[in-house]
Amino acid sequence: MKISATVTLKKEVLDPQGKVVSQTLKNMGYDSIVNVRQGKYFDIELNENDKEKAKKIAEEICKKLLTNVVIEDYTIDLK
Amino acid sequence: MKSSVIVFPGSNCDRDVAVALEKFQIKNQMVWHDEINLPKSDLVVLPGGFSYGDYLRTGCIASKSRIINDVIKHAKNGGLVLGICNGFQILIETGLLSGVLLRNKKLRFLSKNVFLKVINVDNKFCLNYKKKDIIELPIAHNEGNYFASKEQIKKLEDKNLVAFKYCSEKGNINKSTNPNGSSNNIAGILNDQKNILGIMPHPERLIDPLLAGEDGSLMFKSLIKSL
User: Fold this and answer.
1) Catalytic residue among B13, B85, B126, B167
2) CB contact under 8 A, B105 and A16
């Protein structure tokens, strides 16, 4: 089973890289840009066919390794 | 006194800290991150550097390495643990110290000398300093911006767990003397039991007059005195 996880900084945490990207896009003439937040994306291949079990494993690895729950949020997508 | 310096792939201050420990007659051993058993030690040092190339988050991968289980055991049993720079970041990722270290506010890698005020001298790392002493140590980091929730910062301050704060040469603590954006100018913190210290500046780099100063020596002298 394939799983994807997206990790982003929590809304209240300053994201300097996102800010720079946002400013650069505005400088390039994209006036409609309001805000950009930068994150990380993980493609995970899992040897597990049970959807529920796979989701549980994905939750666990997100909490234990892929995110620092103090400052980051994650979303999981099962394919 | 016996110490162990844990070496990770990408550590680059491990030898500097070993030289400092040995200078003060602390019997040191280098321990590779992949070892399972920690040799008998009074002090464990997590050195500065870029363990695992700072992949994922600074200190993150190192905090899951095999030796860390024994380091956590050592810490929970009251053993001394000193994390310098990347070592501080690793301690944060293991959960032994609270909060997080974000990227420097101005997004620049900082490499310069800074002034620090010693806030807590009631711990084994700072016995030889006097409260409110102003010392000078080098910093060299990209992620040293200490951040925690307001409640956590208040807890650190109330329980007197902040060991060092960035200040001016005269000891003023304010925004202009904050190099990286850390909450309350925090440069180093202790755990509740005060046997673990995480610090961004590098005491091991100022241990000899030939290296332009000795302000770091007092920390190593404190450690010997503590036993």
Assistant:
1) B85
2) yes
